[in-house]
Amino acid sequence: MATEEELEEQEEAADEALTVEEIAIMYSNVMESVALMKEINATGDDDDESLAALAANKSYIETSLARDGWTDEDLTEANALIA
């Protein structure tokens, strides 16, 4: 039988677990960041705005990929951009 503390930990873990819909939204957002970074890289823009956009999107991708909950999504391009 689980202790009260164990039950509380299980409830907290369930509250933090991502739903299928949340994973799909996060994947879509990551791939939008990937597309934007690829577009900026392809155009060769190196103005302050473009560099800031690259940095912000890279940071977003890094943060998102560090989250638990990914299943079988293809994150190859995202991983390549932040390597």
Question: Explain this structure to me?
Answer:
The longest helix has 24 residues, at 20-43. The protein has 83 residues and is an all-alpha fold. It has one domain. The chain contains 4 helices and no strands. Helix 2 (20-43) packs antiparallel against helix 3 and helix 3 (48-66) crosses helix 4 (76-82).
Features:
about 80 residues; single chain; mainly alpha; about 75% helix; elongated
How widely separated are the two ends? 45 Å
Structural class computed from helices and strand pairing: mainly alpha
Characterize the main sheet. none
Shape: elongated
Spatial extent as radius of gyration = 17 Å
Overall pLDDT metric: 87
Number of strands: 0
Run of helices and strands: HHHH
Total count of helical runs of at least 4 residues? 4
The share of residues in extended strands comes to under 5%
Helix content: over 70%
Q: Give the low-confidence spans.
A: none
Integer tally of domains: 1
Topology at a glance:
Elements (H helix, E strand, L loop, with lengths): L3 H13 L3 H24 L4 H19 L9 H7 L1
Helix pairs in contact: 2-3, 3-4
Quick structural overview:
This protein has helices at 4-16, 20-43, 48-66, 76-82. The protein is mainly α and 83 residues long. It has one domain (19-82).
